[in-house]
Amino acid sequence: MPLGSDDYIGKTVAGRYKVESMLGEGGMGKVYKANQIALDKPIVLKVLRQALLSDERTVARFQREAKAASRLNHPNSIGVIDFGQTEDGALYMAMEFVNGKDLHHILSREWPLPEARIVRIVSQVLSALSDAHKASVIHRDLKPENIMVEQRRGDPDFVKVLDFGIAKIMDGSGEDGPALTRAGFVCGTPEYMSPEQARGAQLDPRSDLYAVGVILYQLTSGLLPFDSDSAVGFATKHLTEVPPPPSKRRPEARISPAMERVIMRALAKDPGDRPQNAESFRAELLAIDKERRAAAPQRRGASGSLQRKVTPIEQQETRITQDPGWGTESTVRAEPPPGREPPTGRAHVGPVPGSDVAHPQAPTTAPNARRSGQPGVDITDRVPPVRGESGGGAGLVFKLAAGVLVVAAIALGGFYVWQTQQKPKIVEPPIDPKHDVPVPGVDKTVKPSRPTGPLYGLEVPIEKRDLVLANQYEAEGDNDWQLNRMDEAREKYLDAWILNPSAGLALKLGEICYQKDETAEAKHWWTRHLKESANSRAAIYINSVLPRE
Fold it and tell me: Is residue 477 situated within a structural domain?
């Protein structure tokens, strides 16, 4: 019996993905959170509605989304894992799960954002767009709801650009078949549309850069460049009106003149007056941030500590009108728990991974704000100076405390030197030269030697395991796997295995062997996995794909 529209939850799709919950629903289908059984890893599953399978245009559009996303191979773009059909014939797409919050949520709850943070987020968006444009893909629906921000350890505000559902492929090869939108039909979200997109004219990558300009305007001022109560009103203003500079709309916001110039240039009506590509746009933003950091010590010395202006709570919501669904598939979020309602605004388009994670309200003023790069109260202004001359007892106590601290510092320094001589040195993650972003890495000078014999039978005593270095190798292997570099991933996993043979590594190595049609080797690794984890949730999957003897 075919699965109903709400019957996927609890089912296994294509023998590989166990559906756990629904994240959202739209005109084209539903978005689920699922578990990739082989890796015991969360993913996002988009399933096209059964009723639309007979609509050739919709099916072609869904397939084009998978094709557009599959062309992208960038850390800041959402990764497509798989594409196929369910047991009942419905089309599905499996994508990377991002455990974070969309930028609209952050903007509504945490504005004002420091300019340094804005640059950090938007520069990653532009890096993803640069990669997409080089692959001849235009996003056409860039907005805060399609930008996920994940807080990773040591890598704050890591960005993933989502939803290439109405992306335009520009290669002109003709392999996409007939146009998937009618002549003069406009796709996208009106608040972020470029003038040429609002006219229904031919688009190029500079249309995406206009949307980035709107997002920057919103991030710096908390407001959209234009206000309207209708889609047509927004389109008309994008076509005919020049937006006021964001500092005029929100004078109390701290917007540097250089940032404002870049924003207004990105919002130029003529594409020729905007930044001409995403990479040059990104370079301008990074130059602004570099100039700000270079001038920051001088500003502090001249004017003292800067007090952060407290914004009334009623002004912290962004002014975004309801999207009437003007040419885009609106996706309705799954109902959040009581007390955790999302901010008002347009419905989210595309997958909403991580939407069930609450974010505490950021304080408007925090004592440790300076250490986190946020403007705030300088706590050094509140600490009275130590006066050694007055009060001999207090001065003696201070000197004794200082002596104890010096001795402790010397002891810690000696311990650090001894520690570094006992264990291999772990270096900072290298920089990926293609994308200019950190990737997991390890010190190749301490690469473990491979013992002879089958590695799946390797046993390493607990006291001889190196968990730290093993985790580094495994993280690098995960990165290679995400980029579909299976051979490199296997080598990294084997290096990690030698240092710390674990059930999770055995599962991953078995899956790589299985995908490379090395069934016998996969069986050995999976047998080791089940030995290490008798109650593994992957047991059903392993037993279903391995040939019976």
Answer: yes
In three-state secondary structure terms, 13 is strand
Cβ-based neighbours of 400, under 8 Å, separated by 6 or more = none
Backbone conformation region of residue 161, classed left if phi is above 0, alpha if psi is from -120 to 50, else beta: beta
Containing domain of residue 415, as a range? 391-422
> Within this chain, do residues 412 and 513 fall inside the same structural domain, yes or no?
no
C-alpha to C-alpha distance for 357 and 268, rounded to whole angstroms: 37
**pTM reported for the whole predicted model:** 0.54
Both 160 and 82 in one domain: the answer is: no
Residue 278 and residue 213 share a domain: yes
Tell me, yes or no, whether 374 lies in a domain: no
141 given a catalytic annotation? yes
Q: 473-530: per-residue pLDDT in tens?
A: 998 888 887 777 888 889 999 999 999 999 889 999 988 888 888 888 989 998 999 8
Q: Taking the mean position of all CA atoms in its chain, how far away is CA 216?
A: 17
Collapse the DSSP code of 302 into the 3-class scheme (helix H, G, I; strand E, B; otherwise coil) and give the result: helix
Query: Who wins on pLDDT, 466 or 4?
Result: 466
> Do 417 and 482 belong to one domain?
no
Residue 413 placed within a domain: yes
Which range is least confidently modeled, 199-203, 208-212, 348-352, 464-468? 348-352
Q: Which of 102, 131, 141, 208 is catalytic?
A: 141
Q: Do residues 83 and 21 both lie within one domain? A: yes
Q: Is 15 left (phi over 0), alpha (psi -120 to 50) or beta?
A: left
Question: Is the pLDDT reported for residue 20 higher than 70?
Answer: yes
> Angle formed by the axes of helices 486-499 and 467-482, to 10°?
170
pLDDT mean over 455-459: 90
